[in-house]
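Annex B. Sample input.
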Amino acid sequence: MPVTVGPYGQSQPSCFDRVKMGFMMGFAVGMAAGALFGTLSCLRFGMRGRELMGGVGKTMMQSGGTFGTFMAIGMGIRC
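Annex B, continued. Sample output.
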């Protein structure tokens, strides 16, 4: 597919750039959701202090990676 050039000479992002952007957006949304749900679940289990921070961080990374992967796949399908 040819790359179109805008009126000021800038070109559209490549497919790889779109996939990267989709992953980063998905990762950010997943981290926010992981912070919310991870905090609630860890507090429900009665975690405190360092154990709480470790559990929330682990949940944030897992949900961020999962959601980022699916967003990257979706952006790859679109281009």
